[in-house]
Design a protein that fits this description.
Order of helices and strands: HHHHHHHHHEEHHHEEEHHEHEEHEEHHEE
Enzyme class: transferase
CATH architecture of the largest domain: Up-down Bundle
GO molecular function: transferase activity
Number of strands: 12
Distance between the termini: 93 Å
Protein name: histidine kinase
Number of helices: 18
Helix content: 55-70%
Radius of gyration: 43 Å
Strand content: 15-25%
EC number: 2.7.13.3
CATH class of the largest domain: Mainly Alpha
Structural class: alpha+beta
Pfam family, one: PAS_3
Strand order of the largest sheet: 2-1-5-4-3
CATH topology of the largest domain: Rhopdopsin 7-helix transmembrane proteins
Largest sheet: 5 strands, antiparallel
């Protein structure tokens, strides 16, 4: 093999290195890639213009040769530590300065090339080996890491043999050939490194997204054995169960509300997989009902046959509750408008009818119908009472807001509540905390308290306890009414606040609707927690 052929091979390999790193720099715009580009550009300049037998070199080319060797070695180390996310140690700069000074002194002192090139060879070889070790320690496992790191180390070892073998004319072509092959290996290896690095980063980003998103991400495999290939950790927040709990569709089916299980079965039936969002109710581990929205997409193989379903599940409980609140307020607004329009008009004829019934009932010819007249008057009074409550739902009802202490209102109503409770042998426990004064309409708040306490007393059997409590939480004052009844049935809870909805034999169904309307006028929130052990109603008033 001729020397020219070997040098040409080395130049082509170095050109490939320049193109490789330039492409990576254009794609990723990293500063360490720019340094690596400059390394191989300087190497190319040295090969094309300065790599000749040392005996043919003049003092200026030798000076440049050594300078370029130190410069591209420093750039290589700076780029490599940047790739590893570190900074260049000042020790390398000091070492480069000392070694290059020794080489320059040797050149100007007329030393033999085998002597003045020793500091440069030591520095360049060390730089290559150090680069190999840094890449080995900082890259993701894979062929690219192994190939690139090994090639750099071997290139460093090969640099150390230069002072001993450069004088052997027969070895020069082989030296350049080995150098070129190692550069080819580095060019291929660094491409593989970036493929592996990109793949690893994408996997890390995906894992980061999957672990931190509040949405559940999953993949369900249709092939035998069918089951879940992956469920993200967010499922624990949604259901209370860890991802390991869900292996097959059977485990998921156990926590789905019975009325929604048919929707879930469509996931396992490929032909019926829904395209849009599917809303399901999930029974969490703690017993809470969680509303979830699910979106699926099919994964198919090369023949178009579905092999899996991928999708996300999102907790929409807050949105559902908000929609229910909006729906409840819409119903209250409609009823309020109706009340404002004709409630007064209905009351006027009732007053006339009641007056005539009282007048006729006093006449002797109707004395035999006294009981019937009394019944008619009672029904009219009941109708008038319903209308009075109906008017409380009016959207435009005028309220008189003034500073009042909620505890004082409760203390004033306590004897009345106590009297109502005594008849059913219910104990009333008043627990009042230190609370600020609120801007409220005391008459409406009295009606709110009486409605809530009456419902609580009627929900309990003899011997139960009614607790009325006030406290401050953050920027809110909370009125808490707790009973020991059997809880509110789910079908009633879903429609709570709807006018004329009642479970009482003689109830009007307006009590809770009025409570919601009063809370709305006071910018307060009504929060209800119910279960077999009783019901707790929190009325949350803003402090300002």
């Amino acid at each position: 093999m001729s020397l020219d052929t070997a040098i040409t091979t080395n130049i082509i390999a170095t050109t490939l290195m320049v193109l490789t790193y330039t492409y990576l720099f254009i794609q990723y715009k990293q500063s360490y890639l720019a340094k690596w580009v400059m390394v191989w550009v300087l190497q190319e300049i040295r090969l094309v213009f300065l790599d000749k037998p040392f005996g043919e070199q003049l003092i200026v080319p030798s000076f440049l040769y050594i300078g370029l060797s130190f410069a591209n070695s420093l750039l290589m180390i700076a780029g490599t530590v940047g790739f590893a996310g570190k900074r260049l140690s000042p020790k390398w700069l000091v070492t480069a300065l000392v070694f290059s000074t020794l080489s320059f002194l040797g050149i100007f002192g007329g030393l033999a090339p085998s002597l003045y090139m020793l500091p440069g060879v030591a520095f360049v070889g060390s730089a290559y080996i150090y680069t190999g070790f840094v890449i080995w320690n900082s890259c993701a496992p894979g062929m690219g890491k192994w190939l690139t790191a090994s090639a750099f180390v071997l290139l460093g070892v090969h640099a150390f043999d230069m002072p001993f073998l450069f004088s052997l004319a027969w070895f020069a072509p082989w030296g350049y050939l080995i150098d070129g092959l190692l550069r080819y290996a580095i060019a291929i290896g660094i491409i593989l490194v970036y493929f592996e690095k990109t793949k690893n980063e994408l996997e890390q980003y995906y894992q980061l997204l999957a672990r931190n998103t509040t949405d559940v991400i999953y993949r369900y495999n249709f092939n035998s054995p069918a089951g879940f290939d992956y469920i993200s950790p967010a499922v624990t927040h949604l259901t209370g169960y860890t991802p390991d709990y869900f292996r097959t569709l059977r485990q998921v089916m156990r926590i789905i509300h019975p009325d929604d299980r048919a929707k879930l079965k469509k996931i396992a039936t490929v032909g019926s997989l829904p395209d849009g969002f599917v809303t399901l109710r999930v029974r969490a581990r703690n017993g809470d009902i969680v509303w979830a929205e699910q979106k699926n997409s099919l994964v198919v193989d090369s023949t178009g046959r579905p092999i899996a379903a991928e999708g996300i599940v999102r907790d929409i409980t807050k949105r559902i509750l908000l929609e229910e609140d909006v729906s409840r307020l819409d119903r209250l607004n409609i009823v309020g408008q109706m009340a404002a329009n004709f409630a007064h008009e209905v009351r006027n004829p009732l007053t006339t009818v009641r007056g005539y019934l009282q007048l006729l009932g006093k006449k002797s010819e109707f004395s035999n119908y006294k009981e019937q007249f009394g019944l008619l008057l009672e029904e009219l009074d009941r109708t008038n009472h319903i209308i009075t409550e109906y008017l409380s739902l009016s959207k435009n009802k005028i309220v008189e807001m003034k500073k009042c202490n909620l505890n004082h209102i409760l203390l004033a109503l306590h004897p009345l509540v106590q009297a109502t409770a005594v008849s059913t042998q219910v104990t009333v426990d008043l627990n009042l905390g230190a609370i600020p004064e609120l801007y409220i309409d005391d008459k409406e708040i009295k009606q709110l308290i009486l409605n809530l306490t009456r419902n609580a007393i009627e929900a309990m059997t003899s011997g139960g306890k009614l607790e009325i409590k006030t406290l401050v939480s953050g920027n809110s004052t909370i009125l808490i009414v707790t009973d020991q009844g059997k809880g509110i049935p789910s079908h009633v809870m879903d429609n709570l606040g709807k006018p004329f909805l009642t479970t009482k034999e003689n109830g009007t169904g307006l009590g809770m609707a009025i409570c919601y309307r009063i809370c709305l006028r006071h910018n307060a929130k009504l929060d209800i927690n119910t279960g077999p052990a009783g019901t707790t109603i929190n009325v949350i008033f803003p402090n300002s």
